[in-house]
Design a protein that fits this description.
6 helices, globular
Length: 134
């Protein structure tokens, strides 16, 4: 879609076509799970680390990215306007940003939830993947 219609066509399909949106989010989440499963299955079979340590490393990495990303991200309105400005990665007019924030319920609580989930995952990762002992 992006190659044929450009960024505006992609976002038009994303926001207006529910099956496309569900499929796209499903593919993105499945890709993330696929990478985690690959790491979890490859590391123990190669004799690098036990499965528990590999799971801890995946949880720690994911949690750190979520927690630090949500700490460094400015408020949602600024972020959406910034994505629109230079390269039109997510082309949105001010009315779309206002609609998402005011009527869609997209607020800064999304960052708080991301930060909380990141802290929980990072803590679980630290508990599952202790350092190498000699």
């Amino acid at each position: 879609i992006l190659a044929w219609h450009g960024p505006q066509g992609f976002w038009l399909h994303f926001w207006t076509d529910a099956p496309f949106r569900v499929g796209f989010i499903g593919v993105v989440l499945a890709s993330l799970v696929w990478v985690a499963v690959g790491v979890l299955s490859a590391a123990p079979s190669l004799g690098v680390v036990p499965a528990r340590h590999a799971l801890g490393a995946v949880c720690l990495g994911t949690g750190a990215v979520l927690a630090l990303g949500s700490l460094l991200t400015p408020d949602i309105t600024f972020l959406l306007r910034f994505l629109d400005q230079p390269l039109q990665v997510a082309p949105m007019s001010h009315s779309i940003v206002l609609g998402l924030v005011e009527y869609g319920g997209l607020g800064d609580d999304v960052l708080v939830y991301g930060r909380g989930l990141g802290i929980v995952l990072a803590t679980a990762g630290l508990l599952l993947a202790p350092g190498h002992r000699r």
